[in-house]
Amino acid sequence: MRAHIIARAAAFVLIVAGTSILAAPEQTAQPGQMTQPRVWIQNHGRAEAVPISIQEAALDTPLRVRVVNLQDPKGTDGPIQARLVQQSWDYRTIVVTNGQDPAAALTAPGAAGWEATGVTFVRPDGMTLLLKRPRLP
Protein backbone atom coordinates (compact mmCIF):
# COMPACT_ATOMS: atom_id res chain seq x y z
CA MET A 1 0.00 0.00 0.00
CA ARG A 2 2.81 2.43 0.92
CA ALA A 3 4.70 1.67 -2.35
CA HIS A 4 1.48 2.33 -4.27
CA ILE A 5 1.15 5.82 -2.70
CA ILE A 6 4.82 6.61 -3.38
CA ALA A 7 4.42 5.52 -7.01
CA ARG A 8 1.36 7.76 -7.46
CA ALA A 9 3.14 10.74 -5.85
CA ALA A 10 6.18 10.24 -8.12
CA ALA A 11 3.95 10.02 -11.20
CA PHE A 12 2.16 13.21 -10.15
CA VAL A 13 5.47 15.06 -9.70
CA LEU A 14 6.72 13.90 -13.12
CA ILE A 15 3.49 14.97 -14.83
CA VAL A 16 3.58 18.43 -13.21
CA ALA A 17 7.26 18.91 -14.10
CA GLY A 18 6.73 17.75 -17.68
CA THR A 19 3.74 19.98 -18.31
CA SER A 20 5.53 23.02 -16.86
CA ILE A 21 8.43 22.46 -19.27
CA LEU A 22 6.01 22.09 -22.19
CA ALA A 23 4.07 25.20 -21.14
CA ALA A 24 7.14 27.43 -21.68
CA PRO A 25 8.80 26.21 -24.93
CA GLU A 26 10.43 29.60 -25.66
CA GLN A 27 12.48 29.52 -22.47
CA THR A 28 16.23 29.03 -22.81
CA ALA A 29 17.87 25.96 -21.38
CA GLN A 30 20.13 27.98 -19.12
CA PRO A 31 20.01 31.57 -17.89
CA GLY A 32 22.07 33.91 -20.07
CA GLN A 33 21.58 31.99 -23.31
CA MET A 34 20.47 34.01 -26.33
CA THR A 35 16.92 33.55 -27.57
CA GLN A 36 15.84 33.37 -31.22
CA PRO A 37 15.91 36.85 -32.81
CA ARG A 38 12.28 37.36 -33.81
CA VAL A 39 10.54 40.71 -34.27
CA TRP A 40 6.87 41.30 -35.08
CA ILE A 41 6.01 44.54 -36.89
CA GLN A 42 2.38 45.30 -37.59
CA ASN A 43 1.45 48.07 -40.00
CA HIS A 44 -1.92 49.73 -39.70
CA GLY A 45 -2.19 50.78 -43.33
CA ARG A 46 -0.38 50.87 -46.67
CA ALA A 47 1.03 54.36 -46.13
CA GLU A 48 2.49 53.64 -42.70
CA ALA A 49 6.26 53.46 -42.68
CA VAL A 50 8.19 51.14 -40.39
CA PRO A 51 10.76 53.23 -38.51
CA ILE A 52 13.76 51.25 -37.32
CA SER A 53 16.91 52.04 -35.42
CA ILE A 54 19.97 49.90 -36.06
CA GLN A 55 22.61 50.19 -33.40
CA GLU A 56 25.99 48.53 -33.33
CA ALA A 57 25.67 47.17 -36.86
CA ALA A 58 28.36 47.15 -39.52
CA LEU A 59 26.82 49.46 -42.12
CA ASP A 60 29.37 48.50 -44.78
CA THR A 61 27.85 45.01 -45.06
CA PRO A 62 24.21 44.35 -45.97
CA LEU A 63 21.84 43.21 -43.26
CA ARG A 64 20.06 39.94 -43.90
CA VAL A 65 16.34 40.49 -43.36
CA ARG A 66 13.54 38.04 -43.99
CA VAL A 67 10.11 39.47 -44.65
CA VAL A 68 7.18 37.11 -44.35
CA ASN A 69 3.74 38.12 -45.54
CA LEU A 70 0.95 36.52 -43.54
CA GLN A 71 -0.90 35.62 -46.76
CA ASP A 72 2.21 33.88 -48.13
CA PRO A 73 3.87 32.00 -45.24
CA LYS A 74 6.70 30.71 -47.48
CA GLY A 75 8.33 34.15 -47.59
CA THR A 76 11.45 35.13 -49.51
CA ASP A 77 14.94 36.06 -48.48
CA GLY A 78 15.30 38.79 -51.08
CA PRO A 79 16.91 42.10 -50.17
CA ILE A 80 14.80 44.97 -48.93
CA GLN A 81 15.45 48.38 -50.41
CA ALA A 82 16.13 50.98 -47.73
CA ARG A 83 17.32 54.55 -47.93
CA LEU A 84 18.55 57.11 -45.45
CA VAL A 85 16.30 60.13 -45.18
CA GLN A 86 17.64 63.38 -43.80
CA GLN A 87 15.26 65.02 -41.36
CA SER A 88 14.00 68.44 -42.45
CA TRP A 89 12.85 70.96 -39.86
CA ASP A 90 10.47 73.89 -39.50
CA TYR A 91 11.73 76.79 -37.37
CA ARG A 92 10.05 79.61 -35.50
CA THR A 93 10.94 82.08 -32.78
CA ILE A 94 9.13 83.30 -29.68
CA VAL A 95 9.92 86.33 -27.57
CA VAL A 96 10.12 85.96 -23.79
CA THR A 97 10.02 89.39 -22.18
CA ASN A 98 11.78 90.28 -18.95
CA GLY A 99 9.80 89.00 -15.99
CA GLN A 100 7.91 86.39 -18.07
CA ASP A 101 8.31 82.72 -17.13
CA PRO A 102 10.07 80.93 -20.05
CA ALA A 103 8.43 77.61 -19.14
CA ALA A 104 4.98 79.20 -19.39
CA ALA A 105 5.90 80.73 -22.76
CA LEU A 106 7.07 77.34 -24.09
CA THR A 107 4.05 75.32 -22.89
CA ALA A 108 1.71 76.07 -25.81
CA PRO A 109 4.34 75.67 -28.57
CA GLY A 110 5.58 72.49 -26.89
CA ALA A 111 2.08 71.02 -27.01
CA ALA A 112 2.06 71.77 -30.76
CA GLY A 113 5.28 69.79 -31.29
CA TRP A 114 7.85 72.62 -31.10
CA GLU A 115 11.01 72.23 -29.02
CA ALA A 116 13.63 74.77 -28.03
CA THR A 117 16.91 74.39 -29.90
CA GLY A 118 19.01 75.90 -27.13
CA VAL A 119 19.81 78.99 -29.21
CA THR A 120 18.81 82.22 -27.46
CA PHE A 121 19.11 85.76 -28.78
CA VAL A 122 19.34 88.30 -25.96
CA ARG A 123 17.44 91.57 -26.42
CA PRO A 124 17.16 94.60 -24.13
CA ASP A 125 13.53 93.77 -23.30
CA GLY A 126 13.98 89.99 -22.96
CA MET A 127 15.14 87.13 -25.18
CA THR A 128 14.18 85.42 -28.41
CA LEU A 129 14.11 81.60 -28.37
CA LEU A 130 14.56 79.55 -31.52
CA LEU A 131 12.17 76.56 -31.79
CA LYS A 132 12.13 73.64 -34.21
CA ARG A 133 9.92 70.68 -35.09
CA PRO A 134 10.11 68.00 -37.78
CA ARG A 135 8.66 69.17 -41.07
CA LEU A 136 5.44 67.36 -41.85
CA PRO A 137 5.26 65.74 -45.31
Description:
This protein has 137 residues and is of the alpha+beta class. The chain has a domain at 89-134. Helix content is 23%, strand content 26%. It contains two helices and five strands; from the N terminus they run αβββαββ. It has helices at residues 2-23, 102-111; strands at residues 67-69, 72-76, 89-97, 115-123, 126-134. A hairpin with a 2-residue loop joins β4 (115-123) and β5. The longest helix is centred in the first third of the chain and has 22 residues, at 2-23. The radius of gyration is 29 Å and the shape is elongated.
Write the layout of secondary structure elements.
Blueprint: H1 2-23, E1 67-69, E2 72-76, E3 89-97, H2 102-111, E4 115-123, E5 126-134
